[in-house]
Amino acid sequence: MFDRLESSMRQTDNLWNDIEQSARQAGTQVQNFGNDTNQSSQHVLNLQQELERARQEAERLGDAGGSAGGDIDNLGNQGQNAGNKIGGAFKMAIGIIASLVAVDSN
What we know:
The protein has 1 helix and no strands. It is mainly alpha-helical and 106 residues long. The longest helix is centred in the middle third of the chain and has 104 residues, at 2-105. The radius of gyration is 45 Å and the shape is rod-shaped. It starts with a helix and ends with a helix.
């Protein structure tokens, strides 16, 4: 009877050791999962920040493109005005030359 009691106590001790070991393993797995979750959250946060920086850069480039487009439009207008003045001066010069030729012919 004493042998059976001793055997039962050993089995109980072994069972408690198994339960403690399982509990430690479960605790470690939960802790690892928590760490993985924290790392994933940090990666998501980093990606959100990177996306915001990219959005701001795209906005800045869009503004710069719009400004450059306005500058090009202004240069086009200035070129057109200069062309009109040159054309007008050319017509005036032809008119003056034609007048001088007409006067010289008389």
